[in-house]
Every structure is written in structure tokens, then in C-alpha cells.
Fold each of these.
Amino acid sequence: MAEDIRVRIAPSPTGKFHIGTARTALFNYLFAKKNEGKFILRIEDTDRERSEEVYTKDIVEGLKWLGLNWDEGPEVGGAYGPYFQQERLGIYEEYTEQLLEEKKAYKCFCTPEELDKERAEQQANHQPPKYSGKCRGLTQEQIEQNERAGKPYAIRFIIEPQSIVVDDLIRGKVEFDAGLFGDFPIVRSDGTPLFIYTNVIDDRLMEISHVLRGEEHLANAAKQIILAQGLNFLNPQFGHFPLIFNADHSKMSKRKDPVSVNDDYRQKGFLPEALLNYMVLLGWSSGTDREIYSLHDLISEFQIERVGKSPSIFDPEKLLWMNGYYIRNYQVGDLAEGAKGFIKDPKILAAADKEPEFFLQTLASVQDRLKKLDEVEPMIELFYEPPKDYPVSMLVAKKSTAERAKKALQVAAKALGDIKDFSYDSTEIALRASAKANDLKDGEILWTVRVALTGKEASPGTFELLEILGKPESLRRIETAQRKIKSLK
RNA sequence: GGUCCCAUCGUCUAGUGGCCUAGGACGUCGGCUUUUCAUGCCGAAGAUCAGGGGUUCGAAUCCCCUUGGGACCGCCA
């Protein structure tokens, strides 16, 4: 392509970094990197009422966590700044003045109440809700009179009926009848500009080549094309991605669904690699059977032409599977790094730093069982603390008896006590041999010992536990179990 | 109500006129490995390709209609 590829995501900091925004960011990022272009982050914070700094921070942190680093924007700067719209207000004002002067826009003195009423009437009459254009016909005199009276006004852009074709990268040519739109506001009565307007100006000024965003903006694209005409701007190439929904086909909402990248995914123990990989599959596929991709692989494999048109449903189950898959394929050292952030118990944390080798061993023993990082602590705490209270009956293996469980403990204590080199292999040989010699099934002795060691229904295997726990601790726990089981008939 | 978009297993998807008696993945179920739970491996069930009309020798694939779902129609983005 002759022109430079420049794409952007333009979130407004009115809420936590949303999973849908994250996927849009991913697609933009991939498109930019694939085409050796620039990925830009612009914060659309002109809505002072609802914008908050904490949300900007949340977005920035989330993007960084995912590894979707931007080439221009907050923190990194760039030649097309500022990248916060709040700092660009002067720019918009100039264009507004120009539009007003050229009679392409006008001051509207209608109050919100009047507009609400108008809309309600249209709805009642089964008319499409659309601004009547009442203030468009105001005379100069009337305008001045209103202004003198101190009446607040918004500024509306004049829409002439015409047919607008959005040539969409994903959907092809989509035609809209602009006559149905009505004059839309570009500046609020408090003087701040609106998204649909600032978007067009900034995209032009920042020389954005492709505007790639969610499908909910498709109709906005038509309006923005008209706006660009009025401003004598070139249009970017548009592309609108299909939306992501819940299993019940409802929109994923902040209120009831896990949509916050930081709160619901990062802090819950999901890996950025897994989330990224899962998200890219929502709407995109390579055309092959391959589904596992690193961000790096994606940059070369991703093709925007292969993004589908139909909306998809977010499947937490598959994400969970994929997260487990990535965890299983981590080097234990990397797993340790990630897991530490999820361990609350200071004792375990301190022990992990003091004896990193031991910590790694414990992690390796549970690695295949993990689906999320926040499951690490409950799974490895048994290595740092003896089992508390578990029902004594659990010591009895399936299809066995209390009597035989007692015997198993006795036999195991004896066999294990004789071992000098306490390893996986040596404990296995000893336990199996003693089971055979004492007329116990392997399962009877191994299950009982494992429960004595862990107090859990599910855990790593007996020999592995024995090896990691070591001889003294293992024997202590078996002894405890022996005392415990005396009460059982 | 209007405009626009979308439509293949429960879910994500492959499929661009014959290779499709529709492929893969998650999930589900069964088996093997086995001391539990996982992992791993093997296998099964699961889609009259929303429905109906065309076009064609031939359609999941092209056209039309119907139905269903969704988005938008804000001084939110």
C-alpha cells in the first residue's frame, strides 16, 4: 500500500477497560503491525461529566498487560499529539467557528425537555425519532435575542438529504439515506464537542488511514462521512467488526457480566496470552485447523479480510480451557513468576523466596491441574502446612474398610521409615512391595497415604507428594493420621 | 416504528458451485493410562448448512422472498 497505515483505538474513560474494547484494540494492533504501520491510542475524554482519570489508568494498564503497546499516545507521546481530547479543545473550536461561518452548522436553543417531548411524540406516532430542525430556520435576529437572554445552545450540523455509501473493509458497500438522520449536535450546550465530531477531526489530523471499530458504529460512519465533506476532509477507510455477546444473546454489560479486563481476567488469574488468543478467535480464523497463536505469530498470520461478519458469543469455558493450556505449556520458572502475584499467605510467599527450588517443585506438581493462576495457592498450601481437619472416613479407600486403612497406614509408616534415599522411585518401590507383602491392594495403601498427606480428595500423586514433602514431614503426617483413625470403626 | 447488519453442531468456526455421506476446537459422553483429581491418548454423540422458492447437469456456497437475531436512530461513545 502506498499510504502509511495508521490506526487507532479511541476509548472514552467512562468505565473500566472493556473486553470488547480489548478485542478491537487487538485487531487494530495486528492490522498495524502486519502492515508495518502505527497503532495509536487516543483518549476521548470530552464528556467531563463521565470521564474519570482512574479509567484512563485502567485502560492504559490493561493494554500494557496484554502487550498491545501503542506507538503514539499517552506516556509515549508522538508527533500528532496531544492524545487526550481534553487538551485539544481549542482545535475543535476553530473548526466549529468555520462551520458556523459557512452556514454548515447552526446554534440550537432547544432544551433537553423540548427534545425529549419531540422524540416522545414521534415515537407515539410511529415516526422515526429525528430532530425536527426547528432551530435551523432561526433568523439572525432571533439568534441574537436568544443569546442576549442567556439561553444556552448546542451546535448542530446540517444534514442535506443524500445517499451515503460506506465502503466497509469487512462488510462491503453499505448504503444509508442521510435524509433519515436529522441535524445532529456536534457541540454540547456547555461548549464541549461530541464524539462523532472530535473523532472526525482527530482522525484527519492524526492522519488515521483506517478506522476499525465495532459494528455499533456503522451508521455513525455515514454521518462522519458527511461531516468530513463539510470539513473538506479526506475519509479514512472504514471497517466494522462484529459484536460480542453473552450466551443469552444479550450485550455484555458492565453491571452483570465479567467484562473488565483488569478485574475479571487479569486479577482472576488469566494469562494475557490466553485472553489474546481466545479473543482473536472471536471473529477471526486462519482458515486452517490451527487455533493456538502467540501475539507474535498473529502479527504474521492475521489478515483483516478473514475477519467474519457475524456476531459471536463469548464462551467462558473455552477461554478457561485455553488458559489452562497456556499454563501447562509454561516453563515452571515463568509459572512461578506469574503465580507469586496470586499468593496471599505471607508465610508461603516468604518460603517461596527462601526456597525457590522447593517452590518450583510444588508448582510443577500442580501445573497440569491449574486452569487459572488464582488456583495456585489453594493447591500448594498443603506443602507448607499440614492438612487441618478432614473427615477421618476419607482415609478409607473406595471398597476398603477402616481396619484395612489402619493397616495401610501402619505398613506405610514402617516401609517409608526404612528408606534412606527418599525419592519418587524409592517410595514407589517400597510402598508397592509392602502392599503386596501385606495383602493390600496398591490402591488401598496409596489412597490412604495420599489422604494422610493432603487431607484432600484430589491432589498430586502419592509418590510425588512424598518426594516433595520429604521423609520427616511425610512420616509426621502419617502419624497424625494414625492417631486420627483410631476413633474410626 | 424506520434504517442497516447478520444467519453452518450447544458455543467459536472451516467452507467462496462438484474434493461435503459438511472438517477442526471448546463443551458433553465413553474408553485407555492410573493411587485420587487433572493431564495425555483413543473414540462417540452432536448441524435435514434458519425455512421456502429459483439459477445450474450439480448449491452450505449465486439470486429472491419469508422467518429469526442484532445494531443504530442521545447535548453517550
Note: The radius of gyration of chain A is 32 Å.
Amino acid sequence: MLSRSHEAVASSSNLLLSKLTPLDYQRLLPHLRAVSLPAGHTLYEAGASIQNVYFPAQCVVSLRLTASAGTDVEVAAIGREGLVGIDACFGGMPPTHRAEVIIGGKAWQAPASLVREDFSRGGALGKLLLRFNQSLHTQTCQAALCCRLHSVEQRLSNLLLSLRNRVGTDEVSLTQEEVAHMLGVRRSGVTVAAGILRAEGLIEYRRGSMTVVDAARLGSRACECYHVVGKPIGTAVKDLTVIPSPHYGRASRPRYARLPIALSG
Amino acid sequence: MLSRSHEAVASSSNLLLSKLTPLDYQRLLPHLRAVSLPAGHTLYEAGASIQNVYFPAQCVVSLRLTASAGTDVEVAAIGREGLVGIDACFGGMPPTHRAEVIIGGKAWQAPASLVREDFSRGGALGKLLLRFNQSLHTQTCQAALCCRLHSVEQRLSNLLLSLRNRVGTDEVSLTQEEVAHMLGVRRSGVTVAAGILRAEGLIEYRRGSMTVVDAARLGSRACECYHVVGKPIGTAVKDLTVIPSPHYGRASRPRYARLPIALSG
DNA sequence: AAGCCTTTGTGCGAAAGCGTCCATTGACAA
DNA sequence: TTGTCAATGGACGCTTTCGCACAAAGGCTT
């Protein structure tokens, strides 16, 4: 028995879900499963077919490519504004990227096959997915430019602000090592850049966590890429009802052996 | 009166067109217009709505972002294997990138509205477009990684081979300056890299043109990105009937005031 | 309280690429 | 033929980042 509160929470915690027509939403709802995604968990591997899609509630998922040398580069990130695994909705080949949870938290899981069928039906849901797909592509384009032209410091500012906008809190649970993986730079490069930003009072940090202190000034240190993709996402997400006391913060620490935990269904 | 030869040429000069079902193809054919696209011509601007889409026959089109500092970065390239302006088919916002012809040549032009309608009808054409869209996204992902991690020399090798595969000739009409724009690096950086590759007998070049001499060895100098996206495209395109004596080579020189020239219709 | 392991701080030299400048050289046009 | 201009060849010091190595904490476990 899925209660009405379940329903209310699902649609108000993810922007895509909240934008569905009542009909589409009702069709999807019985198949949504509340899960808690631990940081570090891989939702799908590069080259593997996608079994489940995820509508993040408070978590953030990073789409990454791994170079043959082993270095990672983030090509996009998805939070409350989107859907992880959209490639599965369109059929086609498995994606070449990997989806990894970077900020742990709740999400709504649905079978990929279901969303694929809903998409092929066309209509409002299809339009919504295509629209999100385009915004994802825009992110990736900007990532290419950003990787090529902008400094570690700019990109770090960008990253922190974007994460903040997506999770809705000033503090994010990340080590400098993880940040380095996202940016595709050395860990010590992050240490230096973060040190500068801290010295100027723009951010604060301790082991395994970084906090945005002065978002406005940090925004002026970020590259244009933030203003093109990160900020719009932040404003889009603002009108979402905030879910009180998520699992956030607790789920992020021991990132090795934790698997997604079903909260209902 | 559109002759049968017109029909044969269209479907055999572009991979997407050749993959259409007879029905879809017949519906599209009366609206296809043969145009000659001069190098340097912009097919659509960033932020502008797309009026026409293009099925390249012998030309190659570069999708680019311009940073606020003025530097360009290529996020994808499209040749005979694809369609320029696919964003228009899905509705949504105008793209944030620009589409610019880098290798002049023939293409088939169609009204964006028409292809959009055909897409929303669903069916085989829709699947085809979604599939190509995904391959475009794969390219962009790889571009992000490539920009971040690989050397000018590797990326130059990659670029030359990819272009060669798309146009079907070993020689491509490009100045080092134009190559530099594509890679997002200095012009003199290209000079140095090209000099090394020439010294080793992998490529040859003169003013305004570069030639692949030893594709196999050049491939081993290119980064993995070539093998992930450029080479597959090359093999996919191979089964296309080669069109004899295209406008290629002539259309590439005076790249300022030339507008697309209708060859029929 | 002690020990341990992860995370952060820091300091090298090396390498790649940048920005800028100017010399040389093709190729086209007058 | 000659003039002109775009395209290529190189050089300079400078900045950013890399790759590596090691020291100094912070925080959890026992």
C-alpha cells in the first residue's frame, strides 16, 4: 500500500517528476522505489546496459569517462533537476560513460524498461525527457570547453557552487581526492586551489567536507561555465519543496561496501 | 521534376538518408535541396533557432562553443554519417553551440520543421535520429576527455584521421590556423605538432591543405579518442557509394563571402 | 590512551602550452 | 615579373599543471 504521502514526496523531491502530467505520474508512481544511494556507488558502468533509472532527490550523480591512462573526467552531473540513465529511454547502444554517486542521498528508482515504454508512447513525458536530454548535452559541451580553457581554481569554484545548488545545502561531503577525480586533475592541485579560496574566505573545509561560505563572491571566481549551466539548474530547482531531514550526511561516509538501501516498496 | 538520379544520389551520399525506410525516404525526398556549402559558412548560430537541417554528402561540419575569452572549442564534428541540426528535431531550446562548415562540399538541405514533424510521428526515423543523437553525445563526452588529457600532437592526429574518414580523401583543405581553432590551441602549437608528424613521414602538408600519408602509423600516434569515435565512423561510412567528382576542393578556398549555392530544386 | 590509516599540506624539477613577436615563404593578382 | 598578403616557421620568457615524494595532521578503532 503506497500512501498518499509517498506520492507527495516523490513528485516534490525531483524536478522531472514534479513536471509530469498527472496521468504520466500516476502511471509511473506504483513502480517508483525509494532508495538511499551511498556516495561512491556506481549506478551503471560504461558499456553496460542500463537496468534501472534514478530520479535523484537529494543525491548528486556524476557521469564520467575514464581515459586509458586511468584518469577520470566528469562530463556531466545530475541532481534533483534530472534523471540518471536517460540513454536507456531512447533505446540505442549502452552509454560510453559511467554513472557514479558523488553525494549520497535518496532517489527514486524505476525500471528502465518502463520509462522506455513510456517514452515511446510519445506525449508530454517524451518531450520532457528530450528536453532534459538536451540540457545534459549542453552540460557536456560546456564541460569540454571548461576542461580545455579554465584553471583548476575556476573549475573548483564552479563545481562547489553547482553541487551546492543541487543538494540545497552549503556543505558537501567530498574529499579533495574525489574532487580531483571529478575535475581530472591532481589531488594536490585541488589542495592548492582550495587553500587560496579558503584564505579569501570564500569557502571553508575540513576532512571529507567542503562548505561554500560566500556564494556570490565564489560565483565571480567561477568560470562562465557555471553561469551557463550550474546556476540555471540552481534556480530551476528552487521551487521544489524541500524535504525535511534527508539521509544526507550520514550516507556519505563509509563509501566502500554500501549498496542502495530500499526505504519502501 | 526530381529525377531518379537525384534520388539515388541523395540516399547513397549520406549514411542517415541511406538508412531510412523507403516510406520515410519518399516523404523526405521532395523537400531535399542539394546545396554546396563553402568552408567557413555558419549553418546556425549559438542561441538561434534552427531553420534548416543538413545531411552532409562530402562536407564536414564542426559544432563549436566559443568561450568568453574568444577561444573556440570543437565539441563534435559531423560528416556523411549524420545530420546537422538534430536539436531542432526534438523541439526544446536552441542549442548553445554553433555549426560551422570546415570542409566545404555538397549537402542535402531540408526544412527543420519537416524533420521535426517526421520525428514526432515516431517510428523508424525517430529511432534513427535518437541513435545518431546518442553518437553525437558520445563524441562530445570524448571531446571533453580529450581536451583535458591529450597532447596537441595526439589531438591533431585524431583530427586529421577523423576528417579523412569522413570526406573519404587523404587530403583535407585546412590551414593550420583553422586547425588551431578546432583544437582550441595556438596556431604555432599546431605548426610544431604538424612539423613533427611530417618529419616522421606520417603526414604531408602545404599551404591550406594537409594530407594523411600513413594512416596506420598516424593512428598509433592519435589518442584513444580516435579509436572510440573517429574510426567507427570511418568504417560505418565505408559502405556508402562514393559519389564521383564532388564540388570538393573548389568550394573550399575563398571562405568569406560565399553563401550556400543551390544545385537543384 | 595509543595506534593506524586516511586526508591534507608542501616542495621540488619537468613538461606542455601560452602570448607575443618577427622572419620566411608560397600563391595569387596586378 | 613583381608586389602583396596570407600562411607557415621559429624564438623568447612565462604560467599552469604534472608527477612524484614526503611530512603533518585529523579522526576512527582498539
Note: Residues 7 and 26 of chain B are 9 Å apart (CA to CA).
